[in-house]
Structures are given as structure tokens and as C-alpha cells.
């Protein structure tokens, strides 16, 4: 087994571990949104706009990590 094969495998394993951060981030964002809407249903419109922005930022970080996993 050459070192290149080992490092390629480590990149993919590293990305697998890195997906935990965005996964937890998305869960926290939507958990807070659900709690906020449950407390103030009439504020749903005001709550969901920052939720979508936060979700997009967290997912952009996940996609960036995916790209960086394959850069040699």
C-alpha cells in the first residue's frame, strides 16, 4: 500500500468526521426554530427567514469541507 492510497482514505474519513459539525448545526437551528414557533406561532415569518439563512451558511460549510476533502 502506497502513502497516496493511505492519505486518500484519510481524507474521506476526515470528511466523514467533519459532517458531524454541520449536522449538529442544522439540528440546533431547526430545534430553536421549532421552539420559537411553538411559543409564538404568529412570529413564524420573522423566525423562518434567519433560519433559512443560517441553514444555507451551515450547508455551505459542509460543501466546502466536501471539496477540501478531495484536494490533494
From TrEMBL:
GO cellular component: plasma membrane; proton-transporting ATP synthase complex; proton-transporting two-sector ATPase complex, proton-transporting domain
The keyword Cell membrane is assigned to this record: yes
Entry annotated with the keyword Cell inner membrane: no
Keywords for this protein: ATP synthesis, Cell membrane, CF(0), Hydrogen ion transport, Hydrolase, Ion transport, Lipid-binding, Membrane, Transmembrane, Transmembrane helix, Transport
Pfam families (UniProt xref): ATP-synt_C (PF00137)
CDD domains the UniProt entry points to: ATP-synt_Fo_c
Entries under InterPro entries matching the protein: ATP_synth_csu_bac/chlpt (IPR005953), ATP_synth_F0_csu (IPR000454), ATP_synth_F0_csu_DDCD_BS (IPR020537), ATP_synth_F0_csu_sf (IPR038662), ATPase_proteolipid_c-like_dom (IPR002379), F/V-ATP_Csub_sf (IPR035921)
Broad class of the protein's primary localization: membrane
Origin superkingdom: Bacteria
Record localization: Cell membrane; Membrane
Ranges of residues in domain V-ATPase proteolipid subunit C-like: 13-71
Transmembrane segments: 12-34, 46-71
Sequence similarity: Belongs to the ATPase C chain family.
Stated name of the protein: ATP synthase subunit c
Amino acid at each position: 500500500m502506497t502513502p497516496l492510497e493511505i492519505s486518500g482514505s484519510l481524507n474521506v474519513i476526515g470528511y466523514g468526521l467533519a459532517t458531524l459539525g454541520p449536522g449538529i448545526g442544522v439540528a440546533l437551528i431547526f430545534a430553536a426554530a421549532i421552539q420559537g414557533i411553538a411559543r409564538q406561532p404568529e412570529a413564524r415569518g420573522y423566525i423562518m427567514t434567519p433560519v433559512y439563512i443560517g441553514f444555507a451558511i451551515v450547508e455551505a460549510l459542509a460543501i466546502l469541507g466536501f471539496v477540501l476533502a478531495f484536494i490533494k
